[in-house]
Each structure stands twice: as C-alpha cells, then as structure tokens.
Design brief:
By secondary structure, the protein is mainly α. 68% of the residues lie in helices and 4% in strands. The protein folds into two domains: 235 residues, no CATH class; 68 residues. It contains 17 helices and five strands. The strands form two sheets. A three-stranded mixed β-sheet has the order 1-4-5. The chain has a two-stranded antiparallel ribbon with strand order 2-3. The protein is globular and about 85 Å long. It starts with 12 loop residues before the first strand and ends with a helix.
C-alpha cells in the first residue's frame, strides 16, 4: 500500500529574510546608496545640458560661499530637523502621522495669535514663552484629535491626518480676511509681529538652533532611557504584547501623538516668529517641510542623530539648488528630484540588506557561479604591466580583497539552493 504524497514544486525565484546584519555594515551600505543616488542624479542632470560636476560643486559648496548663504542653509535645516524629530515619535509606535504640515501651521497660528494680541502687554521673554507654549499646545491638540478618532473608532490615521493638513491651510487663508490678523492693503496677508515678539539671535542665527540641539539629545534620551520611550517602542512592535504586559495602549497612543504634534507645532512657532519668514505667518509658511520631514525620518531609521545628519543633507540639497539656480540657471525643482532618487535608492538597498533572492538551481546559474569563482582566482593572479613590459608591484592584501569580492557576489544577494554538490563538482572539473 502506497501513501499519496503531495509535492510542492519549488519556485524558480523566491525571497528569504536575512539574519541580523552588523550596524557598521548597514551604515556603510546606506551611505553607499546615497552616493549611488547622487551618481544617478548626476546622469539625469547631464541630460538637461548641465555639467554634473559643476552642479554638485555649486550645491555642496555654494551654501558656504558667504555668510548670507550659510545662514540661509541653517534656517532651512532648523524647521526640517524639529519637524522630523516630531514625526519620529509617532512613527516609532507605527502611528503614521502624515499631518505634519497641518500641525506645523496650527502651531504657527496659535503662536501668531499670542504674538499679535499680547505683544504690547507682556515683557519680551514672557511673550516668547507664551508663544512657545501656545504653539506646542495648538499643534499637540490638533494632532491629538486624529489620535482620538484612531483609538476610539479605528479610523485610518494616514487618511485623517492627511485631510487635516488642508483644514489648517484653509484656516490660514481665512485669517488673511479677519480683523486683528489681516494686514491693511489690497493684497491679503497677515500682520508682521512687533519687535517684542521676534526671536532673539545668536551671531545672526535665531535661537531656534539651541532648541534643535536640545531636542535631538532629548529625543535620544527619551527613547533610550525612559519608561515612556520604552512603552512607545513596545506598542510599535506589537500592541497585543503591550496589552499583555499591562500597558494602557490607548493612553500611550494619545500621549505620544500629542507629544509628536506638539514638537511639530513648536517648529511652526519658531518659523513664524523667526527671521526666515520675516516675522509673520504666511500661507506658505511650511515650505513643504512637513512632507520632506517624512522622508528624513524614514531615511534616518527614526534615529535622532541620524535625523540630524539627513536633515543637513536635505538642507544642503534644497538651499544648494537655489544657489545653482542663480549661478547655472538650473530649476530649484532639481532638489526635489534628487531627494526622490535618494529615497528610491535607499529603498532598493534596504531590500537587499534585509532580504536575499534565492534562485532555483539550474545549469545556467551554476555556470555563472563557476565563472565568477574562476574570475576571482584569475584576478588574484593578475599583475599590472607598465609601458616597458615590467611588472608593477601591487599590495597582495588589496588583490585578495578584490578577488574575494567577485567570488562572493552571488552568495550575498543571489543564493543558489544547491541540493546536489557532486553535480557542481563535475561542472567545475
């Protein structure tokens, strides 16, 4: 009597998750992915008739040409950094806060209300403090509304926070027509703050830079050493695990979302009261910071110091593109294209860092593997020859590394599942 055995045919190509990868190697690969994206961007730039080497020189060095350009770079980085840190709080617990633009605007609106109506009755530092609190509370409450809908009714937070962006934008447009906010004149706009509501400066840079440094270290300490930060990470990993551990998941979600939006609201307050916008609330006050911050937080893997580094890179691309626009006539939209290329490049490298492609063994794949092994061995024996025919000495360690790189090329990313080693040995012979 024979048993019926159901067999499943192995697919030609399948994907398997890798084991843990060393942090140093991961950082190196992500850095290489950014450099690879810059090369691809250079090819694109050459297609529009611009020398890519000159363009990148203008982008990366143009921001440091003069004091004005450098200060402009700092003003570009500061709101982006604060907003990215705020987004990382929500993203840590898998709450997809896409409403940074709206929370940024509402924080600026609340700070503007305090700055316009209490400027003449309060001292400078008390006024700035109240504006700071108003921006934090305004942005925090605006974000908290979406969190309440999420925990009470299971509403999709991505869609809801996205829609709240447009509500905030319409609020600013409405304020351009409200007495007390609107500026007198034919063109709609909002009043400029009195000097009492302006941010102080350190060497020509707004004191926002101090908050930027503080918030980076505070976020690192919060997630690494505090109970609340640990709870956020557990909720992000698994809400069921958090419940089994006795955590109040709803409370954690509400608290963290308020904190996330409050930080973003503070960024709006600094932007409205600072010199970047001329000390006033404008319809385009965000400058797309809320959208770029999502890319920054993701590329940095939600690490505060990584966010600092990526914010600097994105700030250089944005401000440097403006410098290239004035000197080379290149559109400032090129910076957005470069950001997109970097994002997709990191996505691709991230896939190969976390997964590997396994190809079903066949004669073709075996021949490729054998050929690469032979190429590696031949490369190891090769020595460069000078013009007069004499052999040039080469460091053996270098050639050994290069030879090994060829032989392990497929083993890293294209693994052949070889169940019959004897067949491979015959092929090698």
């Amino acid at each position: 009597m024979t048993d019926n055995i159901n067999t499943v045919r192995e697919p030609l190509i399948r994907i398997a998750k890798r084991g843990d990868i060393k942090r140093g190697k991961a950082v190196m690969l992500y850095t290489f992915s950014v450099l690879f994206a810059i090369v691809i961007g250079g090819i694109f730039i050459s297609f529009i008739g611009v020398n890519p080497f000159r363009f990148y020189t203008e982008v990366f060095l143009g921001c440091f040409k003069s004091r004005i350009y450098f200060f402009g770079l700092i003003r570009t980085i500061m709101p982006l950094l604060i907003t990215s840190i705020g987004i990382s709080f929500a993203f840590k617990m898998k709450f997809w806060n896409i409403g940074a633009e709206g929370q940024f605007i509402i924080g600026a609106v609340c700070a503007t209300a305090v700055g316009l109506f209490l400027a003449d009755s309060l001292s400078h530092w008390l006024l700035i403090t109240l504006m700071f609190v108003a921006g934090a509370v305004g942005g925090g409450v605006y974000g908290l509304i979406t969190a309440v809908f999420k925990v009470q009714f299971g509403t999709n937070e991505t869609l809801l926070t996205l829609m709240f962006n447009y509500i905030a934008l319409y609020i600013v447009q409405y304020l351009t027509k409200v007495d007390g906010f609107r500026v007198e004149g034919s063109r709609p706009g909002i009043k400029v703050f009195s000097a009492n509501a302006w941010l102080d400066q350190i060497g020509g840079i707004d004191i926002t830079i101090i908050f930027c440094i503080v918030i980076v270290f505070a976020a690192f300490v919060y997630f690494r050493f505090t109970k609340h930060g640990y709870e956020v990470m557990i909720v992000g990993e698994s809400q069921n695990t958090a419940r089994y551990a006795g955590m109040n998941v709803k409370k954690i979600v509400l608290r963290t979302m308020f904190l996330s939006a409050a930080i973003i609201g503070v960024a709006g307050m600094f932007q409205a009261s600072g010199s970047a916008t001329g000390h006033q609330l404008t319809v385009g006050i965000t400058g797309g910071v809320g959208w770029t911050a999502i890319i920054v937080a993701w590329l940095a893997k939600l690490n505060p110091f990584g966010i600092l580094a990526v914010s600097v890179l994105m700030g250089i691309l944005k401000k440097g593109s403006e410098v290239a626009n004035s000197s080379l006539g290149v559109s400032t939209a090129v910076s957005d294209i470069l950001q997109s290329i970097i994002l997709f490049s990191v996505l691709a490298f991230d896939f190969f860092i976390n997964y590997r492609v396994i190809i079903k063994p066949n004669k073709f794949t075996k021949n490729i593997k054998i050929a690469l092994n032979k190429l590696g061995k031949n490369f190891k024996r090769c020595r460069p020859i000078s013009a007069d025919g004499t052999e040039i000495a080469v460091n053996n360690a270098y050639t050994d590394i290069e030879a090994k790189s060829y032989s392990v090329l497929l083993e890293d990313n294209l693994t052949v599942n070889n169940d019959n080693p004897s067949e491979t040995q015959e092929e090698e012979k």
